[in-house]
Amino acid sequence: MPDTKDVIPGADGAPGRSRIEWVRSGCRLLSSIAAEFTRTRPFDGLTIGTGIHLEPKTVALLLTLAEGGARVVSTGNLSSTQADAVEYLRARGVEVVGAATTDQAEHDEHVRQVIAARPQLLLDNGGDLFARYLAEPYPGLLGGTEETTSGRTRLRPLAAALEVPVLVINDSPIKQFAENRHAVGQSVLESYLRITNQMTNGRRVAVFGYGACGKGVAANFRNACASVAVVEIDPVTRLEASLDGFAVPGREEALRNADVVITVTGAESVITADDLGFLKDDVVLMNAGHFPREIAVEGLARAAGVVQRYDAADGIETLRVDDGRRIHLLTRGHMVNLAGPRPLGNSIESMDLGFALQARCLEAVAAGSVGAGHTVVPVPRFIDELVATSFLDRYGRSGTPPPTSGQPSSGHPGISGPSTGAARSTP
Ligand SMILES: NC(=O)c1ccc[n+]([C@@H]2O[C@H](COP(=O)([O-])OP(=O)(O)OC[C@H]3O[C@@H](n4cnc5c(N)ncnc54)[C@H](O)[C@@H]3O)[C@@H](O)[C@H]2O)c1
Predict the structure, then answer these.
(1) pLDDT in tens, 255-307
(2) CA 20 to chain centre
(3) Which residue owns the Cα nearest ligand 1 atom 19?
(4) What whole-number distance in Å separates Cα of residue 273 and Cα of residue 296?
(5) Whose CA is nearest to atom 18 of ligand 1?
(6) Mutation test of ligand 1: which of 217, 230, 264 has the most ligand atoms closer than 8 Å to its C-beta?
(7) Cα–ligand 1 centroid distance for 213 (angstroms)
(8) What is the pLDDT of residue 404?
(9) Three-state DSSP string of 308-343
(10) How far apart are CA 368 and CA 9, in angstroms?
(11) pLDDT tens digits for range 76-125
């Protein structure tokens, strides 16, 4: 029995809350930006509409925006909303629309309600909010941000219609290497281990897609002693995977050999019912791409020859085929590192970096530091440099001791210094 004095309770009791506190206290960049925003108030008088996974790290981001004076109206993405996060946000004045859902129509209604609040700034994740805005435009939208590759692909053809700055966080080199490559790779491996409790050593893993995320996934499984093959439709990227030392078989050969199949492409129907015949007994299928359509789960479940569908364990659904094979699907094809039992998502530090980019980009849009020429474009270089320098300072990687929370980073007062808010005329 531990001595009671050794037992340190969570910050305010409930386990979910203490995890949120743990994450918030780990987000050193967001903590320092929040302290700065309480002084500079870049979002005074503005509503920010957000449509992003509601989990502990986004809690840290949304509360940072609220510290800057914003009214924050939020909803989650399909399937990833965590009840603790919603409760925590609501208790601190953030307006959260809806709750966790895997139903597309219900999710669409939540998005509609966020847009009905007529936010001046949008923080989007997958393009839902901007697409909805275009369906029913209103005056006063200043612009905003889009978090993902998939959202950028969706919004780029709509750029001319949007006519306001939309900064794509995904296209920052920092997001690419810190989150997409390193953090997604680590957390997908962590999710596989947590959900299946199976070893990786010697397992044959087929990774579909060798973009930034696929590179990290392939590297992390290789580092965990798996035998990794990459399936990639772009021949140049396939060559890169080959020169990085991965096998690059055709998709059918990869599927016939794989013990684990991971999709991380951003595309739809990468694995479908037509592939059922190729899959080995006991194969594990999982998706790390944004949309839950990379593995056509329902099509597979209804394919000829599938005789049974059952929940094998928390986060694992099994299809039994009439020839005796069992096909295991993790988290019903939703992003494996954000769905399923006790999802932790990407590392705190990687998300702190990405969300510092978010906060700084929204600050720049509110301040008018970027204009209509910045519609669906990468994060401006000055913001990347500001965030990179702050990270090196705050996490003690620059050779000098990190400043304590709330203290400004050396030489970086923010987007336009303490008078940022004055640069914008509130509509
Ligand atoms: N799980 C997470 O935490 C997380 C985090 C960031 C991004 N994402 C998502 O992961 C996905 C991939 O992101 P990315 O940044 O690596 O994208 P990317 O565009 O850089 O790379 C995707 C790769 O997949 C390849 N591809 C497309 N269709 C394919 C197919 N049918 N078969 C094989 N390869 C195919 C493309 O040629 C490309 O090389 C996106 O949906 C993104 O939104 C997930």
Answers:
(1) 999 999 999 999 999 999 999 999 999 999 999 998 899 999 999 999 999 99
(2) 17
(3) 211
(4) 7
(5) 211
(6) 264
(7) 6
(8) 66
(9) EEEEEECCEEEEEECCCCEEEEEHHHCCCCCCCCCC
(10) 44
(11) 877 668 889 999 999 999 999 987 777 888 889 999 999 999 999 999 99
Residue showing tokens 């506190």: 21
For tokens 């996934």, the residue is 217
Note every long-range contact of 147-153, with CB atoms under 8 Å and residues 24 or more positions apart, other chains counting. 147/52, 147/123, 147/354, 147/358, 148/290, 149/180, 149/211, 149/266, 149/290, 150/126, 150/266, 150/289, 150/290, 150/291, 151/124, 151/125, 151/126, 151/127, 151/290, 152/127, 152/376, 153/266
Instruction: Give me 30's structure tokens.
Output: 């967001």
CA of 289 to the centre of ligand 1 (A): 6
Q: Helix H segments across 197-250?
A: 212-223, 235-243
Query: What's the gap in Å between 222 CA and the centre of ligand 1?
Result: 19
Tokens of 72: 């924050």
pLDDT in tens, 135-181: 999 999 999 999 988 899 999 999 999 999 999 999 999 999 999 99
